[in-house]
Structure of Acetyl-coenzyme A carboxylase carboxyl transferase subunit beta:
Amino acid sequence: MANNEESRGLKSLFDWFANRRKSGSTSLERQEREIADGLWHKCSKCSVLTYTKDLKANQMVCAECGHHNRVDSDERIRQLIDNNTWKPLDEHLRPSDPLEFRDRKLYSDRLREMQETIGLIDAVKTGLGQINGLPIALGVMDFRFMGGSMGSVVGEKLTRMIEQATQRRYPVVIVCTSGGARMQEGMLSLMQMAKISAALQRHKDARLLYIPVLTNPTTGGVTASFAMLGDIILAEPKATIGFAGRRVIEQTLREKLPENFQTAEDLLQHGFVDDIIPRTQLKNTLAQLIALHQPVLTTPHMVLWETMSLTSTAAE
């Protein structure tokens, strides 16, 4: 009889521990669900949990380690452009499938799925706006749309934006993030490199400012063209910037590359990038650079008065 009671007591003790484990796993699942619901964000670098509202207030930069989380094009425009000054350009342009390309699925189907899922027509948004009251033409690439790949629409929208800026005498800023040219459009995609570069040359001939901002990642044909043609090239901290992939280069050279290879810091050290600007300082930095490069307007009367003043002073 006593043995039965002891066995029941031991069994109930095991049940109690089992229930504790179950309740613990349940609370863990509940905690994971809360994190997934967007209340909290776990940093992929330092694993610190941050309240999502605080993270957004800090422009998606981890306050603990400074890691720059990827942001979409809409958020980037909100961060850079003054309120109620954004005027989008060429929103009607839509990609097509001239080669009727097919890999695991039809390119046309892939485009339709991206457009329905993300809500973008293609991988770039362009427009006119103001940064701290200064007019600007801004292009923002979006990595969510097929890895920010550069197809015909991306090239056409950026070219038209640059031409508008040249006509209006606006500075141009392009926020770059891309995996390179879009292979599904073949040669048509590669032609965009030359087309955008030609528009930037005309912009430069007009003595106007162009600043590319390289974010994580900026690779392939974008790096080989307009991302590296700026008068002043800025980058975000720790951004991956390069042309070919690390593995391809290692296989070609048959040697191990340094850990910081193709980072913004490495490119700054070797002169490919002019400065690394944290995202929280980017808007003010761009405004300062644009203000410094604004043309100085002087009237003929002002020049004449200054000349006469200098002459009279010299005579005295």
Remarks:
- The chain has two domains: 2-37, 70-295.
- The chain has a mean pLDDT of 86.
- The radius of gyration is 27 Å.
